[in-house]
């Protein structure tokens, strides 16, 4: 169980780092993948940069907690971070995004993050 808990936590943290990278360096495709594409009428680079910074920071913070504070701290962090994809689900739905993206990506991510937290609490 310990290997599974740590592996899932590290994978989720690295995925957040990847998302941050993608929003910084491929903002248009990243926004479309998020479920609410950046509008054609304006410059959305600031919004996309903030999104990338948020995701990347969560990933790096999670890795640091796991490395230096242990599984319990990482588990509580995951519980708190699960709010982000849950609220992302609502953001996509409120802004006319596809339900498949809202639930298939964001809500599913929240569930996986909570499963990771549960596994880490069990370690």
From TrEMBL:
<dbReference type="InterPro" id="IPR025363">
    <property type="entry name" value="DUF4267"/>
</dbReference>
<feature type="transmembrane region" description="Helical">
    <location>
        <begin position="100"/>
        <end position="122"/>
    </location>
</feature>
<feature type="transmembrane region" description="Helical">
    <location>
        <begin position="75"/>
        <end position="93"/>
    </location>
</feature>
<keyword id="KW-0472">Membrane</keyword>
<keyword id="KW-0812">Transmembrane</keyword>
<feature type="transmembrane region" description="Helical">
    <location>
        <begin position="6"/>
        <end position="24"/>
    </location>
</feature>
<dbReference type="Pfam" id="PF14087">
    <property type="entry name" value="DUF4267"/>
</dbReference>
<protein>
    <submittedName>
        <fullName>DUF4267 domain-containing protein</fullName>
    </submittedName>
</protein>
<keyword id="KW-1133">Transmembrane helix</keyword>
């Amino acid at each position: 169980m310990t290997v599974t808990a740590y592996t899932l936590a590290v994978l989720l943290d690295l995925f957040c780092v990847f998302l941050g990278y993608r929003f910084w360096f491929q903002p248009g495709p990243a926004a479309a993948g998020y479920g609410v594409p950046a509008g054609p009428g304006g410059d959305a680079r600031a919004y996309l940069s903030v999104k990338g910074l948020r995701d990347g920071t969560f990933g790096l913070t999670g890795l640091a907690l796991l490395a230096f504070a242990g599984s319990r701290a990482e588990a509580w962090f995951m519980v708190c971070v699960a709010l982000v994809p849950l609220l992302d689900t609502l953001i996509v739905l409120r802004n006319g995004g596809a339900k498949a993206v809202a639930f298939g990506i964001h809500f599913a991510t929240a569930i996986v993050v909570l499963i990771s937290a549960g596994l880490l609490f069990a370690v």
